[in-house]
Design goal:
Elements: H1 8-21, H2 28-40, H3 46-83, H4 87-100, H5 102-107, H6 119-124, H7 129-153, H8 155-167, H9 169-189
Amino acid sequence: MYEFTSQFSYVLIFVLMVLEGMSLPIPSEIIMPLVGYYSFKGDLNIEMGIISGTLGSLIGSIIDYFIAEKLGIPFLSKYGKIFGINESKLFTLSNWFAKYGIFAVFGFRFIPLFRALISFPAGLAKMKIIRFLLATFSGHMIWNSVLALIGYEFSTQWEIIISQVEKSGYVIAGIAVFAIVIYIIISKRR
């Protein structure tokens, strides 16, 4: 199993968090607590892990912002599913953004499933980039720090979870593959 022991680890954290910041299904709720866990073990520096994760989240959010600003609603209507956004979510987020502006961008950084998506209405509204960066960086820094510190504080529980996952990894992978196959069969029949 890969261990977080090299400088490459910080690059990996950065890349995963860029994807998370771009609204792709890479949960910060798993990545950042693992940063705390590996920091507790002495394999990572927690500050560097938080900075790597926060910069990654910020870059991903900036990408979403510019996708919305430059390509607009036609693109999001057609390809929004890639980012987990649909017309209903976009409408809801746009209303929140219209009502609360910078506070919505900051506040939504703490709400799973919507935290990355708030970048789209900010881009559509052409929010001033400095304000967007300030609210986004602040929200990501707080969120990622809290998650990493939780992982650090509860590292003994992480060891138990990780050892159980390692022991049952093949079973979990088998169940996941089976579920995917069943889903594909059901989808094809419809």
